[in-house]
Amino acid sequence: MSDTQTAAPFDVRERLSALILAGTTDMAPSVMKVPLDNYRDPARHAEEIDKIFRRQPLQAAPTAAIPNPGDFTVRDILDRSLLISRGADGTAQVLLNYCTHRGALIAEGEGCTKRHACPYHGWAFDSGGTLVGIPGAEGFEELDRDTAGLVKLPTVEAYGFIWFTLDPNGTIDIEADLGSFGAELERWGYDKFWKVAVMDLEFDANWKTTVEAFSETYHFPYVHGSSIGGGVISNTATFDLFDGAHRLGAALVGMRDHAEGNAEFDPDWQTSLLYWKCPDLMLANTPFGVEVVQITPTLDPGRTRLRHTMLAKSAPTTDEELEIAEVMSTPAADAIRLEDVPTLATCARGLAEGEHGHATIGRNEPGVQNVHNQVQKRLDTNN
């Protein structure tokens, strides 16, 4: 296992080839035991929400989700409804999705518009959140419209993603937060990718359990054996850290031919680089683009929200290319919805009701161990 901050794709290729030939994977130094209360205790869960999700930069949406002025998408995160919108000037902004008149939700779903009209009394806000229209304005002559717009959350757009913090009075320094992981994101050019499809789910699972499922390939033959699992050499991956963010170099089945000297290296079809940025962002790179998986808790320790966005490396230029992009997005989304989610629901019950004391995280699951290491680190430092 490498802790270097500069592991390059060539390094991943050579290390992964060696792991395949040896029939093994990168290993953590020891087995980890995670107390079941770390998943189910309401006080622990509240502490994670307060010290991590309410204070740290979170990932609102990929740039590709709202590429044009007026584009917007709505997400629920914790106990907040968020309107993620690109203003007329091209600036992305995360806004609280509540009318400043009487609190009604302003928007839902996704789309493109110059104005958002409140469904209750028709107050109108532009795509940047400014209050621009009040029916019966004579009743509000004393109102300062400049201060009555939608509440803006601190927002930064960088590396193909829109980052924010839930504290309206907070600050966000994304370069400091990302550290060396910023350079790893930069080399992909995610800001040039194109949105294919979005899927929102809410289901029974602790949020950390859900992140765990995207931090190893150990489960693939058992959960995904009849679907995407056939394309992956399970339980075989490199592991690297980037200031707490991790990268798994997962072996696709074609990588065995290269490892055995029977094929040239093809990074698109022989490997998949999987990333996790604490606390809420997973990335799974594919030959066609990247899966963006955003995982956030609800106020219930046993419930999780997940948004899955498939991005293509470029916008389709023909109907055929569009059809291919849409077809390629389906298996990944189906694997999560039809295979991961039901399995995680069984885990949720076992972790809530179990009497075995702790979950056991193997040496062959360094990504899963890192999830718990990073969560604990933030709990210890954000006092």
How do the helices and strands line up, and which of them pair or pack?
Elements: H1 9-22, E1 32-35, H2 37-40, H3 42-53, E2 58-62, E3 71-77, E4 80-86, E5 92-96, E6 110-112, E7 115-117, E8 124-126, E9 131-133, E10 152-153, E11 155-158, E12 161-164, H4 174-178, H5 181-186, E13 194-204, H6 207-213, H7 220-223, E14 232-242, E15 245-252, H8 255-259, H9 267-270, E16 271-277, E17 281-285, E18 289-297, E19 303-312, H10 319-353, E20 358-361, H11 366-381
Antiparallel strand pairs: 1-20, 2-12, 3-4, 3-6, 4-5, 5-10, 7-8, 8-9, 11-12, 13-19, 14-15, 15-16, 16-17, 17-18, 18-19
Helix pairs in contact: 6-11
Report on this model:
This protein is an alpha+beta fold and 383 residues long. It has two domains: 9-56 and 180-381, Naphthalene 1,2-dioxygenase Alpha Subunit, Chain A, domain 1; 58-171, 3-layer Sandwich (Rieske Iron-sulfur Protein), CATH 2.102.10. 29% of the residues lie in helices and 30% in strands. It has eleven helices and 20 strands. The chain has helices at residues 9-22, 37-40, 42-53, 174-178, 181-186, 207-213, 220-223, 255-259, 267-270, 319-353, 366-381; strands at 32-35, 58-62, 71-77, 80-86, 92-96, 110-112, 115-117, 124-126, 131-133, 152-153, 155-158, 161-164, 194-204, 232-242, 245-252, 271-277, 281-285, 289-297, 303-312, 358-361. It has a seven-stranded antiparallel sheet, sandwiched between helices. A five-stranded antiparallel sheet has the order 6-3-4-5-10, with no helix packed on it. Strand 17 (281-285) and strand 18 (289-297) form a beta hairpin. Helix 6 (207-213) packs antiparallel against helix 11. The radius of gyration is 22 Å and the shape is globular. Mean pLDDT is 94; it is low at 2-8.
